[in-house]
Specification:
The chain is α/β, with parallel strands linked by helices. The protein is built from 17 helices and 11 strands. It has a 7-stranded parallel β-sheet with strand order 4-3-2-1-5-6-7, with helices on both faces. The protein has a 4-stranded mixed β-sheet with strand order 9-8-10-11, covered by helices on one side. The mean pLDDT is 95.
Length: 385
């Protein structure tokens, strides 16, 4: 298989390359293209190890630096959105791993679909903001769409146990994040360092904060609706602190099938790369005797209002998920820069959802423009937005 990785220097991208190494001698995967952010040193290391003919970064200055660093290699360095898209549409590529964090992954992933590339999807924002257009393009171009989010991979795998028309509901598990059981008064005092201490998963900063606010679970509800053709009312969030059950499906006879593994993104990444085969994994296996027990709770949507806001955006549809997502990305970035408090994240999201007008059945260009306008507006808010 020939693979391009969008977001190679991020958490998913680096683990994907570990999977490529783990599979060596079992399934050969050739890296055609890699994209990164401003972590030029890591991207240079990846280029030298995997020798892709193409690499790209969004920032022009970073691209210039990377060209200098890799001038003794045969790797062609590209930049900007066009460069990211060129990595995704290379003729020799069989599969694109879409692992760029946030809205930035939308256009390159859509371009890959239009060129008939199979997609291993780890970028939930593409489905949140443009799910109808995205799924229509997948159908029109006949590509395989394989979910890499651990929850959606679990649903995908569990659905093998029945027919689509037999599905009753999806049970989407959530760890509850670092503040499970906390109330708003306590949340008003949390710091960035507190919010970045996830109890089970090692992830990038943005998704870790989304997990702390439960926005990540809200985004995953919308993603599940598009991936599996269910309504928001058919997705139930269950807080499962141990993160052993990655998600479940319930069929009309009330049978429930679950996919379980230790918390590791390498499991769903490998399954996407090898589907429909299951190959030997180097990851650790569950010891149920050591695990002892598993617990389950309802999420607290009154305290963690981002979950309710995401569900509302999904129910309204149209441009509202784009508005919600853009505001959240801005708010999380502000929090990570210590410009706002933790509880101001949902306040900024709700304000954007109130301030911007919705539009049914938007085009891709309208989605991109709305994302830009929301970001500009929310970025201008002062610290006490």
């Amino acid at each position: 298989m020939k693979l391009s990785i969008l977001g190679a220097t991020g958490s998913i991208g680096t683990q994907a390359l570990e999977v490529v190494d783990d599979l060596r001698g079992i399934k050969e995967i050739e890296i055609v293209g890699l994209t990164g952010n401003r972590n030029i040193k890591l991207l240079e290391t990846q280029i030298r190890k995997y020798r892709p003919p193409f690499a790209a970064v969004a920032d022009e200055d970073a691209a210039k630096e990377l060209k200098v660093r890799t001038r003794d290699t045969d790797c062609r360095i590209l930049c900007g959105e066009d460069g990211l898209s060129e990595i995704a549409v290379q003729e020799s590529v069989d599969m694109v791993l879409s692992a760029i964090v946030g809205f930035a992954g939308l256009v390159p992933t859509m371009r890959a679909i239009e060129q008939g590339k199979d997609i291993a999807l780890a970028n939930k924002e593409t489905l949140v903001t443009a799910g109808n257009l995205f799924m229509q393009a997948v159908k029109e171009h006949g590509v395989r769409l394989l979910p890499v989010d651990s929850e959606h991979s679990a649903i995908f795998q569990s659905l093998h146990g029945g027919k689509a028309q037999e599905l009753k509901k999806v049970l989407l598990t959530a760890s509850g994040g670092p503040f499970f059981g906390w109330k708003r008064e306590a949340l008003s005092r949390v710091t960035k360092a507190d919010a970045l201490q996830h109890p089970n998963w090692s992830m990038g900063a943005k998704i870790t904060i989304d997990s702390a606010t439960l926005m990540n679970k809200g985004l995953e509800i919308l993603e599940a609706c598009h991936l599996f053709g269910v309504g928001i009312e058919d997705v139930e969030v269950v807080v499962h602190r141990e993160s052993i059950i990655h998600s479940m499906v319930e069929f009309v006879d009330h049978s429930i099938l679950a996919q379980m593994a230790l918390p590791s993104m390498k499991h769903p990444i490998q399954y996407a790369f090898t589907y429909p085969a299951r190959l030997v994994s180097k990851d650790a296996e569950i010891s149920f005797s050591e695990l002892g027990r598993m617990t389950f709770y309802q999420p607290d949507e009154e305290t963690f209002t981002c979950l309710a806001l995401a569900k509302r955006a999904g129910t309204e549809g149209g441009l509202m998920p784009t508005i919600m997502n853009a505001a959240n990305e801005v708010a999380v970035a502000k929090f990570l820069r210590d410009e706002i408090g933790f509880l101001e994240i949902p306040e900024i999201v709700e304000r954007a959802m109130q301030d911007f007008e919705n539009k049914a059945q938007p085009t891709l260009s309208q989605i991109v423009e709305t994302d830009r306008l929301v970001r500009e507006s929310m970025q201008r808010l002062n610290e006490k937005a």
